User: Fold this.
Amino acid sequence: VQLQACGGGLVQAGGSLRLSCAASGRTSSTDVMGWFRQPPGKEREFVAALTWDNSKTAYADSVKGRFTISKNNAKNTVYLQMNSLKPEDTANYYCAAGRSGSYDLWSLKWYDYWGQGTQVTVSS
Assistant:
């Protein structure tokens, strides 16, 4: 499975960005897609995830109500709509795919495939 993420950039606080992640290859071997981020000098952290069958979504508390994860199955693409961005959202954002059985979508352990990061910088 190959993942190609894009959509990052520089935005002012309060602004919006939409990240996209296009999946190709043996996507049928996966059942969950997620977004993670790694702020400067910190460890990678969970942001949001959803199952391909739409049965479950999960969000980090820090982004609930501001970020929305969605997908287009026909295009094998997952999106992360980010609104009301804050400087603390600044990070390198990664999309990932794996097989979780719909459990603990937030856990890194399920994700076997990773895209390259896309940088999001939010200025105050």
